[in-house]
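Try this one yourself first.
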């Protein structure tokens, strides 16, 4: 697949102007990221809240101009990232969060507030975790973070899965981050800032590190990265209940954790351990997500529950934590991750795209309440 030419896209951005001809798109926003998938050119423009209202009416004309200018494109989809007003969630009700309890942000079951320093300029830190590997935790973390950006929050994504850093591939980030005054500058793509140890080493290099080295790396990702002003820092945790989880809880004030599980019993056992671990560390559990909840045949739309169904919802009710929704098992999720564009960007109207957007809407609503309460919205 031929990659679109950045210069061509930027030329189109300069040519499309407001009705009164006072500004071009490049004066109202900047090219954040782009990719071609199945003939459709996906473009993300970064802007702020004030300029988004002027940009929004220009998007149809911009999409038509992009199709005409970019060879091989049969369609175009342009989104505004970072501060676009959020539309209401369009996923079915179960995907929007089937639990009956509101998200518990800011204190665990014991009612104590999270302790520890926050990275400079960061409002809250939340973790995406799982009791075991292979349940789609990193894919969930990436789509949640980008989805929160589409909800209008300023978002950072930190890959704490040191032994298996997949964030660079999933975000389509190449090359090493810039170093400025001894601090790492996280790359900005799809509306969020992201940092991973995988950006500092070769992709095929094995991270054969003992616990102290892992803990040191997590500490550096928190303290040596210039995250800037963020509403929320989403941390993609490694699987399990070990050194990395303890280090994060000790080094920063975690506002909450999201547990990702698949429906089968063996995965739910590990999810239960994850919930228990965070509760013992006095970190509120925001809820449980059931990933790979069901498979829909792309040809006939027949639904098959390959790993069972509803186990995570039942487990969440048993443990007294919210159930945040179901994510289907679809080839498009894997394909979009391999191509470097989260499914909320590559196929926002697909069942998976809608489910992740609904998850982001649920979590984002709770985060806004907490940020407004703390009066730290950026």
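Now uncover the answer:
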């Amino acid at each position: 697949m031929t990659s679109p030419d950045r210069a061509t896209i930027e030329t189109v951005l300069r040519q499309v102007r407001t009705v009164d001809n006072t500004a071009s798109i490049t004066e109202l926003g900047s090219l954040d990221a782009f990719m071609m998938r199945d003939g459709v050119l996906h473009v993300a423009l970064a802007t702020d809240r004030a300029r988004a209202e002027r940009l929004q009416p220009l998007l149809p004309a911009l999409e038509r101009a992009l199709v005409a200018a970019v060879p091989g494109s049969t369609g175009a989809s342009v989104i505004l990232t970072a501060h676009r007003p959020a539309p209401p969630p369009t996923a079915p009700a179960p995907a929007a969060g089937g639990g009956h309890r509101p998200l518990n942000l800011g204190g665990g079951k014991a009612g104590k507030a999270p302790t520890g320093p926050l990275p400079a300029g960061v409002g809250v830190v939340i973790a995406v975790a799982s009791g075991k590997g292979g349940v789609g935790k990193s894919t969930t973390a990436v789509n949640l973070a980008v989805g929160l950006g589409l909800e209008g929050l300023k978002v950072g994504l930190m890959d704490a899965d040191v032994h298996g850093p997949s964030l660079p591939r999933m975000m389509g980030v190449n090359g090493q981050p810039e170093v400025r005054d001894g601090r790492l500058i996280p790359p900005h793509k799809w509306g969020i800032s992201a940092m991973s140890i995988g950006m500092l080493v070769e992709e095929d290099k094995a991270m054969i590190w003992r616990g102290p080295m892992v803990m040191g790396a997590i500490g550096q990702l928190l303290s040596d990265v210039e995250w800037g002003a963020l509403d929320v820092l989403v941390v993609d945790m490694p699987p399990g209940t070990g050194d990395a989880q303890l280090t994060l809880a000790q080094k920063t004030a975690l506002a909450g954790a999201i547990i990702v599980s698949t429906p089968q019993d063996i995965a739910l056992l590990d999810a239960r351990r994850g919930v228990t671990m965070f509760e013992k560390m006095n970190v509120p559990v925001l809820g449980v997500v059931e990933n790979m909840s069901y498979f829909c045949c792309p040809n006939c739309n027949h639904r098959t529950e390959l790993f069972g169904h509803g186990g995570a919802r039942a487990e969440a009710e048993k443990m007294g934590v919210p159930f945040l929704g179901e994510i289907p098992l679809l080839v498009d999720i894997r394909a979009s991750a391999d191509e470097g564009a989260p499914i909320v960007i590559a196929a926002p109207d697909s069942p998976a795209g809608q489910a992740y957007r609904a998850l982001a809407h649920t979590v984002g609503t709770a985060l806004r309440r907490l940020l407004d309460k703390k009066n730290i919205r950026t």
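Discussion: Confidence is low (pLDDT under 50) at residues 83-101, 106-113. The chain has two domains: 6-81, 93-374.
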